[in-house]
Amino acid sequence: MSRLWSEMTRRTEPYVPGEQSGHTGIIKLNTNENPYPPSPKVTEAIQEEVSRLHLYPSPTADGLRRAIAETEDLTEDHVFVANGSDEVLAFSFMAFFDPGRLIRFPDITYSFYPVYAKLFGIPYKEVPLRDDFTLDIAGFEQSEGGIILPNPNAPTGIYEPLDGIRKILEANPGRVVIIDEAYIDFAGPSAAGLISEYDHLLVTRTTSKSRSLAGLRVGYALGRPELIEGLVRIKDSFNSYTLDRLSQSGAEAAFRDAAYFREMTDKVLLTRSRSADRLGKLGFRILPSSANFLFCRHPGMAAEQLYSELKERGILVRHFSRPRISDYLRITVGTDGQMDQLIGVLHEVLAE
Ligand SMILES: *Cc1c(COP(=O)(O)O)cnc(C)c1O
């Protein structure tokens, strides 16, 4: 704390990202990255773009927005892009939530939401998930200032069917409802299909998980043109060029290579079900996952100890010391080979 800090700097409690180890040989199953590299078309596109780095990028990222719009069967004026979906979310808090009007999100959820709320001075209420970690829809009705929630939820991995999302939209007319779909490609249908019916729905997405581009930092939002225009106003009052040339061309190439995306996503889904079976045989209790991670606990060993034992043996997973979920580990779905190693090590640790 410094006396030179602004009030905003003093009140903020920054988000703590998962460990990013520089060690090679570490098996990284702690931040839900894709275990597979991006499409070779992404590499080509980025290499080609390098020769144009002396020029500013497009402030409106038209090529990338067109590729996303075509993928989603929407028009470009329904698409906003920024530097990671974290930036999209920050802009959304500024564009649609007001200081003095209470917003709501689940008590167990993406831990960046309270960080933004505090930063921007937006009061919030945490709506408790039910005992089985599903959403309590009634708790999200008639909010004063708006709603934000991930679907599938993080870190539980549980997917809320669109009927529930529709109820929340119906019960909050005139307030923006943000559905953070970071993991939707590993789950059921997207709320993006409801945009034509609801002008207060904003869907946010990322290329960090299903498109293997966590290192490129590209996120996007889908919604009615009025909402997109609001986001553009905030972005242009902050930084006109939040996405550089390499990000724009690389991400565009990723959206254009649908076959590669499908193939990698299918591999992750197959490994997810295989790994859940094997963890179940080791005695783990696993929540039903619609994401690229498994949220699980073992009745025979505390999660914190399991986390440390794994780390000592070169495997990183995520543990949250938070109420209701401190018994759980979040394990990213890696390659089959990585998951074999994880299961082998867990076998040893639990036998000791
Ligand atoms: C990973 C994640 C994000 C952030 O994605 P980036 O595009 O990498 O910033 C947003 N929301 C949830 C729920 C996530 O899990």
Automatic annotation (TrEMBL):
Provenance organism: Edaphobacillus lindanitolerans
Catalytic reactions on record: L-histidinol phosphate + 2-oxoglutarate = 3-(imidazol-4-yl)-2-oxopropyl phosphate + L-glutamate
Tell me the classification of the organism that encodes this protein.
Answer: Bacteria, Bacillati, Bacillota, Bacilli, Bacillales
Q: Where is this region: Disordered?
A: 1-23
Task: Tell me what this protein is called.
Answer: Histidinol-phosphate aminotransferase
Q: Which gene encodes it?
A: hisC
Q: In which pathway does it act?
A: Amino-acid biosynthesis; L-histidine biosynthesis; L-histidine from 5-phospho-alpha-D-ribose 1-diphosphate: step 7/9
Sorted alphabetically, the keyword list is: Amino-acid biosynthesis, Aminotransferase, Histidine biosynthesis, Pyridoxal phosphate, Transferase
InterPro entries, A to Z:
Aminotransferase_I/II_large (IPR004839), HisP_aminotrans (IPR005861), HistidinolP_aminotransfase (IPR050106), PyrdxlP-dep_Trfase (IPR015424), PyrdxlP-dep_Trfase_major (IPR015421), PyrdxlP-dep_Trfase_small (IPR015422)
Q: Which GO terms describe its biological process?
A: L-histidine biosynthetic process
User: What broad class of enzyme is this?
Assistant: transferase
Might you give the EC number(s) for this enzyme?
2.6.1.9
